[in-house]
Amino acid sequence: MDQLLFHPKVVHLPMALAVLMPLVTGGLLFAWWRGWFDRRIWFVVLLLQAVLVGSGALAMNTGESEEDRVEQVVSEDGIEAHEEAAEIFVWASAGLLLLMTVPLVLGEGRARQAVALGAFLGTLIVFGLGYRTGEGGGRLVYALGAAQVYVANGGVPDGIVAGDEQQGEDSDSH
Q1: Is residue 138 situated within a structural domain?
Q2: SS3 label, residue 156
């Protein structure tokens, strides 16, 4: 598997889902309450949240595997702050996934509506936690220079031949 910048390749899926889940959950919840769909539509929310949790855990693991390399450039404190934010984000996402299963087992009534509304509000919290995690990762890369451990040969990432980039630029100009 291509290890070059694997963590940055993986982190974008859980971050995108953290942004989209409040919109999807809110929209489907509204449609469910209006009677446009039955409770089975909630499985879409569960599926997307499960993908968020799984991809978040994968992103966290790939970050841990690259931690030693990045510590050559960035202080351990900065990395630990980002790592802790990621753990909170993933655990909160997993807890929210469990909460999201409850409306499927509850009968009609206010309790089911309240839990579903609570799940929607939980997506807003997870969004905030994801933002904090992404902001910490961005700080590591852009402000503290974490990307420098992957860059060699005058700004060309390791494993890419400088001529390959030049060839792509030449083909665009023709």
Answers
A1: yes
A2: strand
Alpha helices, H only, 35-109 = 42-65, 67-70, 76-105
Which pLDDT score is estimated for 40? 85
Q: Is 27 helix (H, G, I), strand (E, B) or coil?
A: helix
Picking from 122, 142, 35, 34, the residue whose alpha carbon sits closest to that of residue 82 is 142
Whether residue 151 is predicted with pLDDT greater than 90 in this model: the reply is no
**Nearest C-alpha neighbor of 73 from the set 138, 143, 134, 7:** 143
Tokens of 155: 């700004």
What span, in angstroms and rounded, lies between the C-alpha atoms of 144 and 106?
49
Query: Does residue 137 sit in helix, strand or coil?
Result: helix
d(CA 133, CA 79): 11
Q: Is residue 4 part of a domain?
A: no
Give the pairing of strands 156-157 and 151-152.
antiparallel
Write down the pLDDT at residue 33. 84
* Overall domain count for the chain: 1
Rounded to whole angstroms, how far apart are CA atoms 3 and 21? 29
Q: How far from the centroid of its chain's Cα atoms is residue 151's Cα? A: 24
Q: What is the pTM of this model?
A: 0.79
Domain that holds residue 166: 10-173
